[in-house]
Description:
Elements: H1 7-16, H2 21-76, H3 79-90, H4 113-126
Amino acid sequence: MPKSYNYRTSKRTGIRWYYSKPFLIILIIIFILVLRGSWGVYRKASQGKELRQIAEEEQRVLEQERVSLENQLDRLKTQTGQETEIRKKFNVSKFNEKLVVIVDRDEAATTTVEEVSKIKGFFSSLMFWK
Protein backbone atom coordinates (compact mmCIF):
# COMPACT_ATOMS: atom_id res chain seq x y z
CA MET A 1 0.00 0.00 0.00
CA PRO A 2 1.26 3.45 -0.81
CA LYS A 3 2.06 5.72 2.10
CA SER A 4 -0.32 8.47 0.95
CA TYR A 5 -3.32 6.12 1.23
CA ASN A 6 -4.79 6.15 4.71
CA TYR A 7 -6.99 3.07 5.12
CA ARG A 8 -8.63 4.31 8.32
CA THR A 9 -9.79 7.65 6.92
CA SER A 10 -11.19 6.27 3.70
CA LYS A 11 -13.11 3.61 5.58
CA ARG A 12 -14.65 6.19 7.89
CA THR A 13 -15.69 8.51 5.14
CA GLY A 14 -17.33 5.62 3.28
CA ILE A 15 -19.37 4.65 6.32
CA ARG A 16 -20.10 8.14 7.58
CA TRP A 17 -22.06 9.45 4.58
CA TYR A 18 -25.34 8.00 5.87
CA TYR A 19 -24.69 9.41 9.33
CA SER A 20 -24.45 12.92 7.91
CA LYS A 21 -27.04 15.51 8.92
CA PRO A 22 -28.50 16.14 5.44
CA PHE A 23 -29.05 12.42 4.88
CA LEU A 24 -30.71 11.98 8.30
CA ILE A 25 -32.94 15.02 7.70
CA ILE A 26 -34.03 13.63 4.32
CA LEU A 27 -34.64 10.23 5.91
CA ILE A 28 -36.76 11.76 8.70
CA ILE A 29 -38.80 13.76 6.16
CA ILE A 30 -39.46 10.62 4.10
CA PHE A 31 -40.43 8.73 7.27
CA ILE A 32 -42.87 11.49 8.30
CA LEU A 33 -44.47 11.53 4.83
CA VAL A 34 -44.92 7.75 4.83
CA LEU A 35 -46.29 7.82 8.38
CA ARG A 36 -48.72 10.59 7.48
CA GLY A 37 -50.02 8.70 4.46
CA SER A 38 -50.40 5.50 6.46
CA TRP A 39 -52.32 7.34 9.17
CA GLY A 40 -54.75 8.72 6.58
CA VAL A 41 -55.36 5.25 5.17
CA TYR A 42 -55.92 3.89 8.68
CA ARG A 43 -58.48 6.60 9.48
CA LYS A 44 -60.38 5.99 6.25
CA ALA A 45 -60.40 2.23 6.89
CA SER A 46 -61.81 2.70 10.40
CA GLN A 47 -64.47 5.12 9.10
CA GLY A 48 -65.40 2.65 6.39
CA LYS A 49 -65.73 -0.10 8.98
CA GLU A 50 -68.06 2.04 11.10
CA LEU A 51 -70.16 3.01 8.08
CA ARG A 52 -70.42 -0.62 7.06
CA GLN A 53 -71.70 -1.59 10.52
CA ILE A 54 -74.28 1.20 10.39
CA ALA A 55 -75.41 0.11 6.91
CA GLU A 56 -75.70 -3.53 8.01
CA GLU A 57 -77.81 -2.50 11.01
CA GLU A 58 -80.08 -0.41 8.77
CA GLN A 59 -80.38 -3.37 6.41
CA ARG A 60 -81.45 -5.64 9.30
CA VAL A 61 -84.06 -3.11 10.43
CA LEU A 62 -85.40 -2.69 6.89
CA GLU A 63 -85.55 -6.46 6.43
CA GLN A 64 -87.60 -6.79 9.64
CA GLU A 65 -89.94 -4.03 8.47
CA ARG A 66 -90.33 -5.75 5.09
CA VAL A 67 -91.26 -9.05 6.75
CA SER A 68 -93.71 -7.25 9.05
CA LEU A 69 -95.34 -5.44 6.13
CA GLU A 70 -95.61 -8.67 4.14
CA ASN A 71 -97.32 -10.34 7.11
CA GLN A 72 -99.75 -7.42 7.44
CA LEU A 73 -100.45 -7.54 3.70
CA ASP A 74 -101.14 -11.27 3.83
CA ARG A 75 -103.48 -10.71 6.77
CA LEU A 76 -105.33 -7.91 4.96
CA LYS A 77 -105.89 -10.13 1.93
CA THR A 78 -108.33 -12.23 3.99
CA GLN A 79 -111.90 -11.21 4.84
CA THR A 80 -111.34 -11.49 8.60
CA GLY A 81 -108.17 -9.40 8.37
CA GLN A 82 -110.03 -6.63 6.55
CA GLU A 83 -112.86 -6.73 9.06
CA THR A 84 -110.46 -6.62 12.00
CA GLU A 85 -108.60 -3.65 10.53
CA ILE A 86 -111.85 -1.74 9.86
CA ARG A 87 -112.99 -2.38 13.43
CA LYS A 88 -109.66 -1.23 14.82
CA LYS A 89 -109.38 1.92 12.70
CA PHE A 90 -112.98 3.14 12.79
CA ASN A 91 -114.21 1.66 16.11
CA VAL A 92 -117.36 0.20 14.52
CA SER A 93 -119.45 -2.96 14.89
CA LYS A 94 -121.70 -5.09 12.70
CA PHE A 95 -125.47 -4.67 12.58
CA ASN A 96 -127.17 -6.16 15.69
CA GLU A 97 -123.81 -6.49 17.41
CA LYS A 98 -123.32 -4.97 20.86
CA LEU A 99 -120.32 -2.81 21.54
CA VAL A 100 -118.97 -2.39 25.05
CA VAL A 101 -116.86 0.67 25.75
CA ILE A 102 -114.91 0.72 29.01
CA VAL A 103 -114.28 4.25 30.20
CA ASP A 104 -111.88 5.25 32.96
CA ARG A 105 -113.46 6.77 36.05
CA ASP A 106 -111.61 10.02 35.54
CA GLU A 107 -113.01 10.56 32.06
CA ALA A 108 -116.53 11.78 31.63
CA ALA A 109 -118.85 9.81 29.35
CA THR A 110 -119.04 11.94 26.21
CA THR A 111 -120.53 9.42 23.79
CA THR A 112 -124.21 10.01 23.25
CA VAL A 113 -126.86 7.80 21.71
CA GLU A 114 -126.75 9.87 18.50
CA GLU A 115 -123.01 9.27 18.08
CA VAL A 116 -123.46 5.51 18.55
CA SER A 117 -126.23 5.42 15.94
CA LYS A 118 -124.03 7.44 13.54
CA ILE A 119 -121.26 4.90 13.99
CA LYS A 120 -123.63 2.00 13.29
CA GLY A 121 -124.99 3.82 10.25
CA PHE A 122 -121.47 4.42 9.00
CA PHE A 123 -120.55 0.74 9.31
CA SER A 124 -123.74 -0.37 7.62
CA SER A 125 -122.87 1.93 4.69
CA LEU A 126 -119.45 0.24 4.52
CA MET A 127 -121.06 -3.18 4.25
CA PHE A 128 -122.13 -2.57 0.61
CA TRP A 129 -119.73 -5.29 -0.60
CA LYS A 130 -121.69 -8.12 1.05
